[in-house]
Design goal:
globular; binds pyridoxal-5'-phosphate; 4-stranded mixed sheet; alpha/beta; 7-stranded mixed sheet; 18% strand; 37% helix; 389 residues
């Protein structure tokens, strides 16, 4: 089918919820996708921060194929070797204190479960989250989302959600109290325009949560699974080595197969009893094969080190470029701030067949490329930005 036929077909039978690019994706490999019209695009947005291992990484594809031929699915009512191995591998790369996984299907579901666990562990109700943070679109997650229009879309919101200021520990001291069950934050606020906090903030927040008895949750739906050049933000030097009580994951975790997870420490997991949490699809075999293979591919291909290299290359290449105010973020979660709306750069790049993302900060262009992106591919972005400027 050509592009127009595909567009007409999709539009005829789906609610128009997204402003789509005028292309139809047919196949992908590494950082590249090919369209129905045979055009090739450099994907520096990674399918919405999902394709960490690159499009259709052969190791992930083979693992899914092999699993599909054995059994597609059985729920958590039975044991499964692939589920056990995926959980073991995920816990092995997690910060030391996070010893148990709970699998679900998406980022918002991981956050819903994390907040529920915080309430169960503390017998309290209040959840503190941060201005500029995004946590998903289901009831509790959207109520914890103090970013632009989202919380309003979710009205009526779940009660007992309170906003704090990201990076401002004095403000946190006035908001987090002995009624607070959990504190949830994106350690790098991606959608808000790749906003960062000082490592010391995470140390102070950890101490405050300990002092007031609140569960600390890092929403690493974007920052997790190697995105920053570390397996996780939590436990890394970016967080001053601070380990949260729960890390939530999705996006990159299955290289595109829908899967979410909560990684949980002993104190929290000890408060969860049989039937407190549940899911039909979470922990299904196809998703588990994808998780295990994703983690292996990142490891085998040295993608953590690559993410750090690529960040440095981009920073060096953009230093002093006219119109660029700054580069924010870590590894393969990067924001380029311009001195004018980034929509101009976004359209120019798309015209050059390079896909990037915008953010809720109009001047910030977001890059969320696969972790296997090369310096040469980043060079293509830089060249396209420089052209005619
Ligand atoms: C930081 C963060 N948390 C949670 C979510 C929600 O994830 P999902 O769309 O898989 O529900 C997103 C999605 O963009 C996100 O960026």
């Amino acid at each position: 089918m050509n592009f127009t036929d595909i567009q007409n077909l999709e539009d005829a039978f789906q609610i128009a919820t997204y402003k789509k690019m005028q292309i139809a994706v047919e196949r992908g490999a590494g950082c590249w996708i090919w369209t129905s019209d045979g055009e090739k695009y450099l994907d520096l947005y990674g399918g919405h921060a999902v394709c960490a291992t690159g499009h259709s990484h052969p190791h992930v594809v083979n693992a899914i194929k092999e699993q599909a031929e054995k059994v597609l699915f059985y729920s958590n009512l039975v044991y499964s070797e692939i589920r056990g191995r995926a959980a073991e591998k995920l816990v092995s790369v997690a910060p030391n204190t996070l010893t148990k996984a709970f699998f679900c299907n998406s980022g918002t579901e991981a956050n819903e479960n994390a907040m529920r666990m915080a309430r169960m562990a503390t017998c309290r109700e209040k959840i503190v989250s941060f201005s500029g943070g995004f946590h998903g679109r289901t009831a509790d997650s959207i109520s914890a989302t103090f970013l632009g229009k989202y919380r309003k879309i979710g009205e009526p919101n779940v009660p007992h959600h309170v906003e704090a200021l990201f990076g401002d520990i004095e403000n946190c001291r006035s908001v987090i109290d002995d009624q607070t069950a959990g504190v949830i934050l994106e350690p790098i606020q991606s959608m808000a325009g790749v906003r960062e906090a000082e490592p010391a903030f995470f140390r102070q927040l950890r101490e405050l949560c300990d002092e007031r008895g609140a569960v600390l949750i890092f929403d690493e739906v974007q920052t997790g699974i190697g995105r920053t050049g570390n397996w996780f933000f939590g436990g890394s030097e970016l967080a001053d080595l601070v380990e949260p009580d729960i890390i939530t994951l999705a996006k990159s975790l299955g290289s595109g197969v829908p899967v979410g997870a909560c990684l949980v420490n002993d104190a929290v997991s000890a408060s969860i009893k049989e039937n407190d949490l549940g899911t039909t699809f979470g922990g299904g075999m196809i998703a588990m094969a994808a998780v295990l293979a994703t983690l292996e591919a990142i490891e085998f291909d040295g993608m953590l080190a690559n993410a750090k290299r690529v960040e440095q290359h981009l920073r060096d290449s953009l230093a002093g470029m006219r119109g660029v105010v700054g580069v924010f973020g870590k590894g393969c979660l990067l924001g380029i701030e311009f001195d004018q709306p980034s929509s101009a750069a976004h359209s120019k790049l798309l015209g050059n067949k390079i896909i990037t993302g915008t953010s809720s900060n109009p001047n910030v262009l977001r890059l969320l490329p696969p972790l296997c992106v090369t310096n040469d591919e980043i060079g293509m972005l830089v060249e396209a930005l420089t052209e005619g400027s």
